[in-house]
């Protein structure tokens, strides 16, 4: 694998740490600012919405410069946002810092996915994308638990200051290792926007919203769920996040491996399994011995969907994949925002800390149904004598754009 993939993984590590570490220190942040847990959950929702909006906007703004330079700009924005969060005197300013940092997230992973795919042979694209996303998953094994431990012992502000330092490391890695890769000649913003006329691109994004939303419905409130329901000590949350991260690493690698061989079956298995495990989590969350392995499975099944969904968007966006790729990262975070919000609603309504697991299970089932619909439409579109759908670029058009 090219060293440039390592640089992308380093940036992903920093971004993954700031995205997920808030779950581990949510009670501490809520206590310091004097807000409720559901209100503190807005730090998750706000970040996710920032990713969703920032992904297409930042990608569009970056069409005038090289992909490497844009990646560096995004890492700079990420650093600034985390520094704001680290020094915020009031909750509103911390929320602003989270949003600023989030604006870099979607475009970094979207542009990074395109760069990763272009660095390797066509049959290894999903594996290269998974390699970049490994930084995000490893962050949940090392960065997030360590950040949670530091936040609980030395203060959550130190955690976000260290995350900003990770951003500096990511910026240096991109500057040193990623080659100059100018945007393809002849591909303009209107070509990028044309990808959204393809129904398969839209269905893949909808699957992303619902499927990954299922994961965040449970994980956003993992700290209060495990301490108040399962009976774990506050310090145990760190190690539970390690387990979640290990599941993510394994699921991401498996998803990347099999997405290059059997993409849709991989989605069927991962989404169906995720729905089942989330439903069971409403029961296993009451028992320490059962809660821990369930958390591993949620991470594994959830992240097994990431490489195949990202590759499906790239495949169907044809010759103009950058904006669609970034928008799909935004879709992941739209799912995060939706599920964090819905989870807060059911908790505030008095249904208990395990109620978000039911929300996640329903979202995962909906994503599975869309996967079956997408496959059925694809079979119909590729049947002999079927006309090309208007607005869906053909492979020939994609190749022309790439030239």
UniProtKB/TrEMBL annotation:
CDD domains listed in its UniProt record: MFS_NepI_like
Residue ranges crossing the lipid bilayer per the database entry: 42-61, 73-96, 102-121, 128-150, 156-178, 199-224, 236-254, 266-284, 290-309, 330-352, 358-377
PROSITE patterns: MFS (PS50850)
Keyword vocabulary terms for this entry: Cell membrane, Membrane, Transmembrane, Transmembrane helix
Record's bilayer topology term: Multi-pass membrane protein
Protein name as it appears in the record: MFS transporter
InterPro entries xref list: MFS (IPR011701), MFS_dom (IPR020846), MFS_Efflux_Transporters (IPR050189), MFS_trans_sf (IPR036259)
The Major facilitator superfamily (MFS) profile domain, residue ranges: 4-379
Subcellular location as annotated: Cell membrane
Region (Disordered): 384-403
Pfam families documented for this protein: MFS_1
